[in-house]
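Final report, Chapter 2: Outcomes

The project's central promise was a pipeline that accepts a single protein chain and returns its three-dimensional structure in a standardized token representation, suitable for archiving and comparison. That pipeline is now operational. To close this chapter, we reproduce one record exactly as it appears in the project archive, with the input sequence first and the structure output second.
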Amino acid sequence: MSADVEFDYWYAVKKTRVLLSPRKHLETFGNTLVQYHLISELDDYPGKVRVREGKLEACKPLVITPNFSEIETEGFGEEAKAYLEHLKQHEPKLKILRYGYRLKSDNFTESIVTDSLLNVTERVLAQVKESNDPFSAVLQGVDEPWDIALVELWRREVETSAQSNIEDLQRGGKLF
């Protein structure tokens, strides 16, 4: 990591690839657990790949308004927090629902595998597809700061779920 935190988080965001998105949108009237699988090469160890697995907890969306200032983070590094700060500064431009999220990265597992990134990625994708979990995601990202990829996954899922959540809330008369 460099001394420039903003450079680190933008580099991590640009390197994040969502290889498999959850098949279902975030729940409108209940909480959602998104199971993530994050694959990254170890920078200083050729042929070593880290696989992290965990869950992002999402509470049901409440109203239409970006409100990044109320998001709580636990166990996230400075780069992920800086990226979240960037999103907070640009929230007037973002048209999304207010999602009651608690991003937690303290309950995850990780393993280091000796193999190529391609082989590990293919195996993880096959296992996740076989599990048929509609709320699973597979990502590739940098090994440090790795938690940026989780914030980016969360942002993308909110973006893709918002329209269907708005429609559900309108039908249920709970939008305003």
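Archive annotation: The longest helix spans residues 147-171.
This record, like all others produced under the grant, will remain available to the consortium after the project formally closes.
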